[in-house]
């Protein structure tokens, strides 16, 4: 048996911590019990911080880890896409795999136990298969020309078979409304829902909304200048357009776990449509990426008021300075100080585990095997500070 104690223990069976608490683990890493210390000073392993379950990074592009430090900030989505296209192949395959492995190792050391990862190729498959971190791989597809839809889907199905040969959980998923023909959004969404999990970049920027609602703005102009087809102008939000494309695949409501990533422009109409169409909707917050690209944040208060299940992701090192869940949580705490740390940790641990259907993760509850993470450098009230860091203990 291993026993750890700290000023705060967050089992996350509810958001409140146990003050001067302990957690005990069995030989296989399973939680045995949690409780309050009779005498903290007698505990041989007492930490001045918080003990929490392993994190779940609900949205990452780990295969882009070689792009760290290459991107200009504040370019908006159109400028960001231009940079992706220009810089994607600036390093060799060996350098990309090295950076990818280093990024996964660092996330693991910082306490990430599972990850919902976006892949456009096979570079990450062998590394994920050998890594202690659990990953579900979302094989993201693009394609603006309707006639290309069959070939794109054939290609991603081949990539899915490749991932399966490594023993990975992987399936196709659509990227975003603005990079896909209507036919491809529907086909990729159908394949994702068939697997039970869908991840979708949604309402990340006003530029996306301008494109779908009004047929204008930098993203619209970029596509037209490149001679690419553009999505239909609907006069409605891109989220409502996406739900319409789901309905073209099969009738609502949907039982799949659907993760809407970013949702910077989400409004009440969109939330109502999501709740009507999806039985298991989740939203992945990636605040540092949102600030990096276009200096905006999602309407977190509105999401909380409506009871949406929120998760936390890092996005990629093309749109972030680090892949650090604690930095994301500190950003959320800074901008939304009314949210207690226990609720933020529920998003970063338990809700992500629920999205991925990994019941062994997400909480320090008897029988689970979530790992154990220490948060240090807390303030006098137990909140995060700019100096707070995370370290895997188990």
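^ structure tokens above, recovered residues below v
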């Amino acid at each position: 048996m291993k026993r750890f104690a700290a000023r705060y223990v967050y089992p996350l069976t509810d958001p409140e911590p146990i003050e001067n608490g302990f957690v005990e683990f069995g030989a296989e890493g399973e939680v045995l019990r949690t409780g309050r210390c009779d005498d903290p000073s007698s505990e041989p392993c007492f930490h001045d911080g918080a003990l929490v379950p392993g994190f779940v990074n609900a949205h990452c592009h780990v295969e882009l880890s070689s792009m760290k430090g290459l991107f200009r900030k504040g370019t908006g989505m159109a400028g960001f896409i231009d940079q992706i296209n220009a810089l994607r192949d600036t390093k060799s395959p060996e350098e990309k795999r090295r950076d990818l492995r280093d990024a996964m190792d660092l996330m693991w050391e910082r306490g990430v136990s599972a990850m919902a990862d976006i892949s456009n190729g096979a570079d990450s498959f062998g590394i994920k298969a050998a890594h202690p971190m659990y990953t579900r791989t979302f094989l993201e597809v693009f394609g603006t020309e309707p006639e290309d839809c069959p070939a794109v889907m054939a290609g991603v199905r081949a990539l899915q078979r490749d991932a399966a040969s490594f023993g990975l959980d992987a399936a196709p998923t659509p990227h975003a409304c603005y990079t896909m023909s209507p036919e491809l959004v529907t086909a990729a969404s159908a394949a994702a829902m068939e697997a039970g999990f869908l991840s979708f970049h949604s309402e990340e920027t006003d530029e996306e909304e301008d494109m779908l609602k009004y047929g204008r703005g930098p993203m619209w102009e970029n596509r037209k200048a490149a001679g690419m087809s553009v999505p239909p102008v609907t006069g409605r939000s891109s989220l409502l357009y996406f739900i319409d494309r789901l309905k073209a695949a099969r009738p609502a409501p949907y039982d799949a776990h659907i993760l809407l990533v970013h949702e910077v422009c989400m409004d009440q109409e969109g939330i109502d449509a999501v709740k009507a169409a999806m039985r298991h909707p989740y939203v992945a917050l990636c605040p540092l990426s949102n600030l990096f690209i276009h200096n905006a944040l999602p309407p977190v208060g509105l999401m909380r008021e409506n009871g949406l299940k929120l998760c936390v992701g890092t996005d990629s090192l093309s749109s972030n300075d680090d892949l650090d869940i604690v930095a994301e949580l500190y950003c959320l705490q800074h901008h939304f100080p009314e949210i207690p740390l226990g609720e933020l940790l529920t998003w970063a641990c338990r809700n992500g585990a629920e999205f991925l259907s990994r019941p062994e993760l997400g909480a320090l509850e008897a029988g689970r095997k979530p790992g154990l993470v220490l948060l240090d450098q807390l303030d006098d009230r137990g909140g995060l500070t700019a100096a707070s860091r995370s370290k895997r203990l188990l």
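The first strand starts at residue 2 and ends at 9.
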